[in-house]
């Protein structure tokens, strides 16, 4: 009936046993092997990246015959747990891919090697990409690829609704949403998440554009600021006015509804371009991307992944060289060709497809100003409080002021 | 390899072995022999149980004890790599639990799920089993498989189907509603309806397990008893009340106990369908525990939750065994 629940409680137990039993043998550190010696690098990468990286590793091995790169693809759904267990057991791979939201946690665990800032320089990368790998001003991860959310909208339906240009500010976006619903007969105006896990990701474009933040640079909770209240009011108004669906189930995929015209607008990442081209070919040429409609500014959230080196690794020199290969201009352009992941290295954007494609320039412009979430060890707990505040507002159970006041006091207890 | 005579001689010799030696060896010899063979048997027993015992110790006993220890500490994220830095804080996790609104809500939700879900599952399981045991003769296997299929289907597939059934805009139920000119409610998106919808799904999914138990129980009832009752002029209802139910009692008890334990642990349904929402209305104790432990790394706190759930399950099970046990014997 509920095997997983039992596993959950057993799992907690196993974590401790592993922790108690294995840290002793894990933290020995050991001498570093020189980069030109014969050695094997172990690398963990997630999802689609994990599979594509093996090809790149083969190319790298040919150029560097002394190095064998062993890539292990890890599913995103188990990645976090697997990395935590590895950290507990002292069996972290030499190099690992890490999402921005993991960084605070793993630096707290003390398993990450600080980035060699002579080899990797901040100025070569998008600021938000670099910041994602930083904890308390110390860089632990080299940005590998970045992503940010932009506005996807149906141009054919907008025309039907009598609007021919992309919305540039909040008012224009809401007018467009209303026009879609009234004149182009769409079910909804804009797809944003009303509640549940990671709702905050949809809210970030509103929060950051209004000039708000969850936690500021000094590490203080500021989610009840007037800017944040304004952003949440705007977010909530889409639900009040029936422009957005109040009930979205976990695992909802917007792509299909965008294709059939029930949803004419949503905030999406770069991967949605491929998903739409491949999954909804019937609307090719009938949609476009635009920068996040602005309030004070047009600021979106930054996501993506960094590459980290394990503190216990004995192959730090070789690992550094391998990461350098993946993140320099050439490596990044090659990676874009293979995966369509947006390069974190800004110089990679100056040639080929990346420089010519108009849609990609929208992403680049958004990325220049995008903001990343603060790297805090208990980030998921903090954003959960914001998720709850958003849910209260979208379900009409509290005003934006009250909901954020509650969230503020809860988050104050969570930041040191 | 060997001659035909050799082959024939060997089995004969072995067969003769025990038969011929034991009478000749006398009482002393036979006792000694039995003793040593007992030792070997013991050894063999232990040897054969070792795989289970090792697995049980490593994956059950040790984690259970570790969880108990951890429930008295403030074990958090940092302690994953520095477990010995965790501090003992006595019963603090436990006292905190009972002022934690979220936990109390999850406790209430779980109770709701059990109180409504268990009787429904048992009752419907019994009805289906009786119908399948007596009524339909030809399509019996088909229906048994049909009712059992949800049990062996993975929850993700079940979730996909149920989301389609319950989808407020173009789902199956919404379609039926619009046939008669009504608008379907938003089953999983409404705080009032999310839990009943979840219960409906769980009952559908677990009916098969209970049904199989009851069918086995029904078939164990001797036909003579039924025949005797019929000869005495009992109608179907009297037969059901007077014979089927009393003789099914042990099965009923077992089915109730395992269903209750399963439902108290309910995790997958809300995890996949609603993530505990809307507004925590389907947040169960197990889901809450999973989140505290693996999303927020409050391992000590989550362990305390696990033990509270354990005590609740133990208490309810003991109570059920007492109440439902056959007192007439």
Radius of gyration of chain B: 29 Å
- The general outline of chain B is globular
> Looking across the biggest beta sheet of chain A, what order are the strands in?
2-1-3-10-6-11
The percent range for helix content of chain A is 40-55%
Straight-line N-to-C gap of chain A? 41 Å
SS content category of chain B: mainly alpha
Q: Uncertain segments of chain A of ≥5 residues (pLDDT<50)?
A: 1-10, 19-29
Q: What order do the SSEs of chain A take from the amino end to the carboxyl end, as H and E?
A: HEHEHEHHEEEEHHHHHEHEEHHEHHHH
Structural class of the secondary structure composition of chain A?
alpha+beta
User: What is the helix content of chain B?
Assistant: over 70%
> How many H/I helices of chain B?
12
Q: What is the number of beta strands of chain A?
A: 11
The first-to-last residue Cα distance of chain B is: 66 Å
| Total beta strands of chain B | 0
N to C succession of SSEs of chain B: HHHHHHHHHHHH
Largest interface (C-beta under 8 Å): A-B, 46 and 58 residues
């Amino acid at each position: 009936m509920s095997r997983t629940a039992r596993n959950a409680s057993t799992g907690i137990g196993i974590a401790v046993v592993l922790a108690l039993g294995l840290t002793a043998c894990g933290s020995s550190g050991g001498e570093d092997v020189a980069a030109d010696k014969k050695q094997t690098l172990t690398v963990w990468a997630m999802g689609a990246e994990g599979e594509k990286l093996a090809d790149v590793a083969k190319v790298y091995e040919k150029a560097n015959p002394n190095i064998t790169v062993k890539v292990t693809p890890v599913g995103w759904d188990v990645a976090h747990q697997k990395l935590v267990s590895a950290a507990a057991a002292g069996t972290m791979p030499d190099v690992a891919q890490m999402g921005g939201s993991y960084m605070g946690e793993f630096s707290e665990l003390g398993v990450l090697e600080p980035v060699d800032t002579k080899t990797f320089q901040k100025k070569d990368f998008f600021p938000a990409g670099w910041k994602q790998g930083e904890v308390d001003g110390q860089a632990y991860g080299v940005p590998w690829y970045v992503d940010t959310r932009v506005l996807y909208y149906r141009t054919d339906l907008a025309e039907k609704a009598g609007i021919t240009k992309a919305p540039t500010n909040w008012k224009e976006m809401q007018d467009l949403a209303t026009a879609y619903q009234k004149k182009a007969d769409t079910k909804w105006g804009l797809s944003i998440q009303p509640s549940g896990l990671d709702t905050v990701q949809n809210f970030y474009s509103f929060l950051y554009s209004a000039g708000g933040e969850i936690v500021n640079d000094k590490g203080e909770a500021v989610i009840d600021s007037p800017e944040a209240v304004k952003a949440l009011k705007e977010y909530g108004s889409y639900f009040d006015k029936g422009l957005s669906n109040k009930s979205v189930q976990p695992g909802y995929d917007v792509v299909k509804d965008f294709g059939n015209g029930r949803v004419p607008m949503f905030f999406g990442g770069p991967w949605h371009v491929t998903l739409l081209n491949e999954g909804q070919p019937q609307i090719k040429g009938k949609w476009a991307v635009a920068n996040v409609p602005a309030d004070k500014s047009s600021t979106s959230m930054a996501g993506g992944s960094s590459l980290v080196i394990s503190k216990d690794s004995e192959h730090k020199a070789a690992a550094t060289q391998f990461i350098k290969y993946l993140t320099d201009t050439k490596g990044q352009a090659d990676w874009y060709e293979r995966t369509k992941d947006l390069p974190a290295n800004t110089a990679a954007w100056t040639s080929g497809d990346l420089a010519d494609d108009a849609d990609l320039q929208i992403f680049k412009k958004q990325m220049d100003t995008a903001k990343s979430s603060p790297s805090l060890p208990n980030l998921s707990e903090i954003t959960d409080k914001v998720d709850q505040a958003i849910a209260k507002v979208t379900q009409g159970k509290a005003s934006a002021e009250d909901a954020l006041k509650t969230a503020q006091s809860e988050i104050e207890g969570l930041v040191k | 390899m060997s001659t035909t005579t050799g082959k024939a001689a060997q089995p004969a010799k072995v067969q003769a072995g025990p038969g011929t030696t034991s009478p000749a060896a006398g009482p002393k010899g036979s006792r000694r022999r039995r003793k040593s063979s007992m030792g070997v048997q013991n050894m063999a027993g232990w040897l054969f149980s070792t795989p289970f015992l090792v697995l049980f110790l490593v994956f059950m006993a040790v984690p259970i004890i570790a969880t108990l220890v951890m429930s008295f500490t403030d074990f958090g994220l940092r302690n994953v790599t520095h477990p010995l830095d965790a501090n003992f804080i006595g019963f603090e996790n436990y006292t905190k639990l009972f002022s934690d609104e979220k936990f109390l809500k999850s406790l209430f939700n779980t109770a709701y799920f059990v109180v409504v879900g268990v009787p429904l599952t048992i009752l419907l399981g019994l009805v289906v089993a009786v119908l399948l045991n007596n009524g339909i003769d030809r399509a019996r296997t088909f229906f048994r498989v049909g009712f059992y299929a949800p049990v062996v289907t993975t929850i993700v597939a079940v979730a996909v189907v149920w989301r389609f059934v319950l989808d407020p805009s173009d789902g199956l139920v919404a379609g039926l509603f619009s046939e008669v000119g009504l608008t379907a409610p938003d089953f999983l998106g409404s705080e009032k309806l999310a839990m009943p919808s979840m219960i409906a799904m769980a009952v559908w999914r677990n009916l098969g397990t209970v049904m199989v138990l009851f069918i086995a129980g029904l078939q164990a009832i001797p036909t003579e008893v039924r025949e005797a009752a019929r000869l005495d002029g009992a109608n179907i209802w009297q037969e059901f009340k007077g014979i089927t139910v009393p003789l099914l009692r042990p099965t009923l008890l077992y089915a109730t106990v395992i269903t209750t334990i399963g439902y108290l642990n309910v995790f997958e349904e809300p995890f996949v369908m609603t993530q505990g929402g809307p507004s925590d209305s389907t947040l169960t104790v197990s889901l809450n525990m999973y989140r505290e432990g693996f999303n927020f790394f409050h391992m000590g706190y989550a362990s305390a939750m696990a033990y509270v759930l354990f005590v609740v399950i133990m208490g309810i099970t003991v109570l059920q065994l007492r109440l439902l046990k056959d007192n007439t014997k």
